[in-house]
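Students often ask why we bother encoding 3D structure as a string. The short answer is that it lets us treat folding as translation between two languages. Here is a chain of 332 residues written in the first language.
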Amino acid sequence: MKRQENLAIPLVLFASMLILPTIDAVALPRGARCEKLFTGGASHHATRQAELTALITDRIPDDAYKSYSTEEIAEALVTKLGDRNRRIRRSGRNSFRPSTETDLMLFFREDSVDSIIKDGFLNIHQVGHTNGDSTPSARAQLENYLTGITVESGGYGSHMRDTLIKEASRGSLEGAKISTRRRELTRKDPYNRLRPKSAYLVVRSRSIDIGNVVFRNQYGHYGAVLKEEVQPRSTWTPTDSLAASPNDIFVFDNQPVEIKAYGDKEVKYYFEAQVWGTLDLSHVAYWIVPQGTNRNSSLYQKLAATGIPIKEYGLVEDTVGRSSTRRPVVID
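And here it is in the second language, the structure alphabet:
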């Protein structure tokens, strides 16, 4: 979760990286295409999700992006990973339920508030760069490796590159227009929109041993707590995803788990969530600001103008067993 631009938590890639091969595009079977816009009840949604989930193998077919919304693809991808949860220990005195006993928190700096309000939370792929040591392409390779699913069958950035080539060949792009159009496509590219945004997964209970969890607010002092509705398209890891293996990525269900966060001297201990698909203000349950924040400040007023509730939080340290934690606790 190291560095993540305007948005959430910064991303820094660990030193060794598996390089995945470029894969040729795959078309949907004949007759598989549906309307892109979802219009129907729960049963129709379930049918579409089942069809889409069946189409996803070790890659997401390119035609799926034309036939389904980003959120539908994200949910199907996460559904595909459901069997990963069989690896988790389910009972014990230190167990908790990720779906009902945790919060997904994205933290950001004050200078990112305007862009978040305007564009939502963007990932490293949409921004196109990071202040950390990773690159968007390296991050994409890691995401494919962790899930075992290739998001862009033609290779990372191939869709955007092909679009630029086509537009340039028609003479509609030249000089500075190419750079401007590249930035626009980077933000709107369907593959980039699908890729995850990282968040803290904060366990609410302070009486169970979850390992030496450390919250570090150099990622930003202000945050957004997400609505539970994003869980069906979210995964989580008991460590920084950049140091995780495919055996460490899980999905949200309502079953108890007993697992401790882990890390090392370079990677601090914490639980991380990865929210796939778009994230905007409609997915924010409430903003959180440090206890004692001036309500007349420009930042507070900007957050208040969104109409989303604002709560304060404090950083609380606890010791349970041999583990010490430092985490944000919301003040109701």
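Translate back mentally: The two ends are 27 Å apart (CA to CA). Keep this in mind for the problem set.
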